[in-house]
Amino acid sequence: MKSDAAILLTELRQDHRNMAVLLNLLQEEALRLEQHDRPDYELLLDIMRYMTVYSDAIHHPKEDLVYAGLRADQPNLADGLERVEDDHQELAELGSRLRADIESIIAGTAITRDRVLDDTKSYVHKLRQHMAWEEEDLFRRADARLDSLDIDASHLVATDPVFGAHREASFANLLHAIEHEAADAH
Ligand SMILES: [Fe+2]
Ligand SMILES: [Fe+2]
Are 174 and 43 within 8 A, CB to CB? Predict the structure, then answer.
């Protein structure tokens, strides 16, 4: 039987695959902006709402617990992992900045195209780089110590509103875009 830590790591990796899909969508919309085309701001807002209610609220705190568990287990083997919490903080800030841009545009406030483009690119770049680092370092160190890791993430159990079994209707734009992507891939 899989340990709780092993299940947690499986969930985290699945979240990364899901977030990679969303980052591709963000990048496509950024390309539209770059080509002076109007991006789908409702879709962008859905993506950034998901990043707030799921990635920032559930996914990243679980990873903070993995880091805390590794440090508690053998502090010297957790060297260099401190950045996980700083990265999460930075991502939350970049994400809320981008979400605020999008909400302002939808509300009719003038914001320069360059600003939205820069904020979208910064967010995509930072999150991709962060996930790659976690997969190469944080997750691997956790894999190596699954048997001794003590992680209680029971307060972070939440259904994923977009990729989970119960999809929330409020994410209709995003659900539609994901289905479209999946259909294109076949
Ligand atoms: Fe993370
Ligand atoms: Fe992550």
Answer: yes
Distance of CA 153 from the midpoint of ligand 2 (Å):
15
Gap from CA of 112 to ligand 1 centroid (Å): 30
Distance in angstroms (rounded) separating the CA atoms of residues 135 and 40: 31
Cα(38) to centroid(ligand 1), Å: 30
Identify residue 127 by its one-letter amino acid code: L
- 141 CA from centroid of ligand 2 (Å): 14
- Residue 3 — pLDDT band, cuts 50, 70, 90? confident
Residues in the chain: 186
At residue 2, the pLDDT reads: 66
- CATH number of the domain at 4-185, out of 1.10.1060, 3.30.1890, 1.25.40, 1.20.120? 1.20.120
Cα of 154 from ligand 2 centre, angstroms: 18
Residue 34 CA to residue 119 CA, distance in Å, equals 13
- 42: CA distance to ligand 2 center in Å? 25
Q: What is the pTM of this model?
A: 0.94
Give the torsion sign (CA, 174, 179, 23, 50).
positive
CA distance 106 to 41: 7
